[in-house]
Amino acid sequence: MKISLDQISKRFQRHWIFKEISYEFSTPGAYAILGPNGSGKSTLLRIVAGMQAPSKGKLHHVMNGNALEQNQLFAHVSFCAPGMDIVEELTLREFLDFHFSFKKPLNGLTVKEIIHITGLQQSAEKPIGDYSSGMKQRVKLAQAVFSDTPLLLLDEPCSNLDQQGVEQYRSWIETYAQNRLVIVASNDLREYDFCKERIRIEDYK
After folding, report:
1. Which of 68, 78, 133, 163 is the most buried (most CB within 10 A)?
2. Coil, helix or strand at residue 155
3. In the predicted model, is pLDDT for residue 125 greater than 90?
4. Tell me, what CATH number does 76's domain have?
5. Domain that holds residue 195
């Protein structure tokens, strides 16, 4: 997969968050979008995902040499962010069954196997609303990492995770993301130290 940013700019009311970003992401590769809180890195990640439109500039997604339209992106993108909603009334098993009715699981994994990998077997039949914030973050990461998509977008992926959770995240990236396009928005080195390419939002103010 290849994603090209052509003079991408974003403005909220009269304030420009960033201006004229031209960049190219390609598979396989690991990229980090860096900047302090409020700098616009999460906004840029959502623009790359097709979830938000830029104020100026053009964005091009290409898969196997063919341009992808906006309405085709969903099948190719996995996304994880601290503020994203998950259906907390469902149990973990129900939520993953629902999620993977829309997205194909990575490497042919079953929901049972994914639950085992998360280490949440004992809580699989409990409503997600009863989970701790760290457990919820593991669920958000799991639905993204274990979806069979070429593009994996992670916004502050270790939010609310303890050290064991951080180590689990890093293990998942090493095992399940090597041949994918991974873009991480972060200001925490533990989340992106595997990323060889780095974009600093402050360079586009």
Report:
1. 78
2. strand
3. yes
4. 3.40.50.300
5. 2-204
Position 163 scores a pLDDT of 96
Q: What is the mean pLDDT of the chain?
A: 96
pLDDT in tens, 30-79: 999 999 988 999 999 999 999 999 999 999 999 999 999 888 899 999 99
74 DSSP 8-state letter? G
Number of structural domains in the chain: 1
Q: Which strand (E) or helix (H) includes residue 68?
A: none
H/E run at residue 170? helix 163-176
Q: What is the pLDDT of residues 48-61, one digit of tens each?
A: 999 999 999 999 99
pTM listed for this prediction: 0.95
- For strands 197-200 and 29-34, give the pairing: parallel
Q: Helix, strand, or coil here: 3? A: strand
Q: Name the one residue in this structure whose structure tokens are 């420009």.
A: 16
Give the separation between CA 21 and CA 119, rounded to whole angstroms.
Answer: 40
User: E strand or H helix at 118, and its extent?
Assistant: helix 111-118
The structure tokens listed for 195 are: 């990323």
Binned at pLDDT 50, 70 and 90, residue 82 comes out as: confident
Angle between helices 163-176 and 133-145 (to 10 degrees): 0
Taking the C-alpha atoms of residue 33 and residue 187, their distance in angstroms, rounded to an integer, is 8
With a cut of 90, say whether residue 188 has pLDDT above it.
Answer: yes
